[in-house]
Amino acid sequence: MGNDAPGPKLPLKLYVGDVVELKKPHPCGANEWEVIQLGMDIRLRCRRCGRVVAILRSRLERRIRRFVERPLDSRSTDLQPP
Ligand SMILES: [Zn+2]
Hints:
By secondary structure, the protein is mainly β. The protein has one helix and five strands.
């Protein structure tokens, strides 16, 4: 306790359609963002006002507080054919 574990950190699994809550809410008052595009930048759309933002993946991973909805992750626990 009290020290930062420098161990390997698993990359966060993100899928289009996931809804995340960030540590900092949008100025419109909402704090739910839907993932609409993956890549070097992750594109998120505010569920309330529809604003789209792009955030570097590494930066986003630190800003996510929790997942609100993970529609794809729940069904991809087993390997599935593409
Ligand atoms: Zn908003």
